[in-house]
Specification:
100 residues; alpha+beta; 5-stranded mixed β-sheet; 5 strands; 21% helix
Amino acid sequence: METNRSLLVLQTFLTNAGGTIPPAVLITGQKPDLVILDMKKKSVNLFELTVPYEHNIEARNTDKANRYAHMKTDITNYTVNVEPFEIGARGYISRENRLR
């Protein structure tokens, strides 16, 4: 875990509780790939990377957005932003991902 005053960057393999979202924020078994918790701004940014074949990029984005969408209402003391993004299995980055 890397700390910078009120900013915490949490990765799956670094948290003591076995997840990327601190239990004080939300108790969950889900593990987004990267969580940036800004305690000063009271915000949580969840990032989820997927590496699908190019023809599945949009479908995988929808799947991941839906998987973590409930966290926007389950986490009540913070503003929550869910950002799934995809890099194609052969390195392709879609126009939509470039704009995110």
